[in-house]
Fold Choline transporter-like protein.
Amino acid sequence: PLAPRHCTDIICCVIFIVVILGYIALGVVAWVHGDPRKVIYPTDSYGQFCGQRDTLNENKTILFYFNILKCASPVVLINLQCPTTQLCVSKCPDRFATYIDVQASYRYRPDQWNYFRQFCKPGFNNPRKSVAQVLRDEDCPSMIIPSRPFLKRCFPDFSTKNGVLTVANQTTFKDGRGKTRNVTDLREAANGINNVLDARSVGMKIFEDYAISWYWILIGLFIAMMLSLLFLVLLRFTAGVLFWIFIFGVIGIIGYGIWHCYWEYDHLKGIPGSDLTVYDIGFQTDFKVYLQLRQTWLAFMIILCVVEVIIILMLIFLRNRIRIAIALLKEGSRAIGYIMSTLFYPIVTFLLIAICISYWAVTAVFLATSGEPVYKVMANQTLCKYANLTCDPETFNTTNVTKLCPGAQCTFAFYGGESLYHKYIFIFQLANAFVFLWLVNFAIALGQCTLAGAFASYYWAYRKPADIPLWPLFSSFGRAIRYHTGSLAFGALILAIVQLIRVILEYLDHKLKGTQNSFTRFLLCCLKCCFWCLEKFLKFINRNAYIMIAIYGKNFCTSAKEAFFLLMRNVVRVAVLDKVTDFLLFLGKILVAGGVGVLAFFFFTQRIPVFAQEVPMLNYYWVPLLTVIIGSYLVAHGFFSVYAMCVDTLFLCFCEDLERNDGSTAKPYFMSASLHRILGKKKLSPKKA
C-alpha cells in the first residue's frame, strides 16, 4: 500500500463525528427521561410500580385485575390497557368467591371477608356498604377466581379435564352480578394466555438447559474454531483437489443420470401407453404418471446431456481462469499463514458491533420508557362521552364526570407526555435505528479495509515474506482510522440509508398486511426486491472500494469507480473466482458445522460411552445442539470471512499487477511464481537480493 497518505472525505468524517456526539447526547437525554422500571414492573391503576423497593407495594409484586372479563373489550386493543381497576397484590386468589356472598356472611365467617378484602382497594374495610355502591365505586372486585401469576399478573388457572376447559375443576362460575358464566368467557378474556404460558414454560426450560450446558457449548465452539483454522491451513494444499473432486463428481453424477434416463427410455419400449406424449395425457397431479412415458425420460436425457456438455465446455475454455482462482486460494492460505493475527480480527469487529447493539438496545428501552403517567377515564357505560379522555386522578372526584358516568374511574393508561421531547419520541427511535445501522456498517467497513491493507502489504512485498512490513495488521488499522474514517463512513452511510428504507418497507408490509389489496402487495413486494438487490450491489461495490482505499488511499467515490471498472475488465475472472471461492468456503462451513454438530448430537444424546456420565440432564437436548451447530457455523463464517477478504484483496492486486507491470526489469510482477507460471507470459525478473 502507498505510504504517502492524506485524509479523505473530510466532510463526511466531520459529519460522522458530529452524529456520534449527537447519538451520545440522545442516549444521555433518554437516560435522564427514561425509566426501565416501567418495563420490569407492572403498574397499577394509580401509576405505582408493583414490587418496587422502599414503597408500599414492595411486597406486592403481582398485578390483579378486578374484572378480567373486561379485558376482552376492544378498548384493550385501542389503549393497550384493560378497562378495569388494577391493584398490586402479594399473591393471586386461589378460590372462587363473590362480593355478594362474602358480604352476606362476613358477620359469622370473618375469615372469608379478611381473605377477600386483600383484593380490595387499600384501606377499604366497610362490608356494610351496599353492594351497588361498592361495585359502582369499584372498591372491591365483584368476584375472584383461582389464578396463577404470569409475567407478574394474575390470570385464570386454566386446565383441561377430559378435553373440557376448566378452572379449579369447574366449568361455570358466578360473576358477582347475578349471572352464571362459563369459563370459556375467561378464556376469551385471556385470549392467547395459554399459548404464552406454554411459551413461557418452554422459555424457562430452555434457560435452564443453557445454564447447565453452557461450558459444553463453549467446548463445542472451541472445537469449531480449531477445525476452521485447520481447514484454512489445509486449503493451501487441498484447494485444487477439493475443487476438481467436486467437479468430476458432478460430471460423474450427471453421466450416471444420462445412462439411467437412457435405460428407462429403452426399458419402456413396447409397453402399452408409453409412447403417448405429455400433451396427450394433459395435466396430472400424480407425477408418477409422467414417469411411465418414454418422452419424459427422453426429455430428461436431453436436458442432462446439454448440462453435461456446458460443464465440459466451461472447463475446457475456462481452465486457465479456474487454475488462477485455485492458485489465488492457495496464495490466500499462504498469506494468512504469514499474517496469522488477521484470523482474530473478527473478534474486534464482533466487539464493536456488540457495543453498537447494546447501546442501541439500551437507548431504545429508555426512549420507550420516557414519559409521565397518563391517566384516562375508564367508564362502564360505552356511551359515556368522557370515556378514554385524559384526566387528573387528584381532581377527578371533584368533577362532574362521576355524576354523568356512574362508576367512571380515572385510571393509569400508559406512559407519555405532551412536551416537545415526548412528541418526537418516534423520530428519536427512528434516528436511533439509523445511527445504529450506520455504526454497524462502519465497524464492518473498518474491518474490511484493515484486512485489505494487511493482505495488500503481503501481495506487494517483492520478496515474500522478507519484505512484508512489521505488524501489517496494526499498521493497516492505523491508516484506516487516521486517514480514511470519512471514506469508510461515507460508504457505510449509503448502505445504512438503503437498509433503513428496507426496514421501513418491512414495517409497512407488516402493518398493512391485513388491509392491503393485491396492487399494494405487489408494489411492496417489488420495492422490497429492488432494495434488496440494491443493498447486495452496494455491499459488493463497498467491499472492493475499501480494498482500493487500503491500497492507494484515495477517496471513496474514486476508489469505488476504479474498483468497479477494474472488475469489469476482468469480469470472467471475477465470476470464476467468486464461484470457486464460494463453493470451497461453503464446503468448509458445512464440514465444520456438520462435523461439530454430529459430535454434539452423539454427546448430548449420551451415545458416547466415555462421556455418558458427564452429559448434563436436559429438558431439550436440541437446545445446546442447535446452539453448537449455529455457533459453529458462525465461528467458521467469521474465520472464512477473513479468508474471503484475503482472496478478494489478492485478486484486485493481481489484476492491478497485470495492468501496471509487464514482467520486465523496470516493471516486474509482484505475483507469486505459481501464478506467473499459470499465466505463462514472461519469466519473472530476477528478484534483487
